[in-house]
Amino acid sequence: MRSVRERIFATLQSGLAAPDRPILRNAPIHDLGGRFLSLSDGSTELIEEYFNPERFEFSLRPKLTLLVLSAVPETSFNPEDAAARDEALDGLIEAISVAFSAISDWPDEVMDWRMLPPEFTTHEIMGAAGMKGCDIAFEIDYWSDRREG
Description:
Strand content: 35-45%
Largest sheet: 6 strands, mixed
Structural class: alpha+beta
Order of helices and strands: HEEEHEEE
CATH topology: STM4215-like
Distance between the termini: 13 Å
Number of strands: 6
CATH architecture: 2-Layer Sandwich
Radius of gyration: 18 Å
Number of domains: 1
CATH class: Alpha Beta
Low-confidence stretches: none
């Protein structure tokens, strides 16, 4: 039997994905086909431990990394290309937000879920001209009858 944590990841990954928007899991940045989406495991924190019956409350914080590539790699700054890239990233963020809000088949052990605002970053794409990205963290609170979550 899969753990509650693994069932949450399966729900999140399938809920965020679309035919034109596959979501990888724990994938390194690879050859981009215009964009890249990868769900990282993030952290799991034990919040509370109950003894009768024995139950454990956890907070899971996976992270989705989104990257988009300009249509033409930048050799010099091109405002139209940068605007198109920014618009593509904004559209992707909105689509992920809508998809997350529509997830309704969470495992029964899930108590609460929320999507945090995107953090725009270049730490993973330093020196990669023509790319823009962000990280979106999710907080998912759940209980388990196993200490491992």
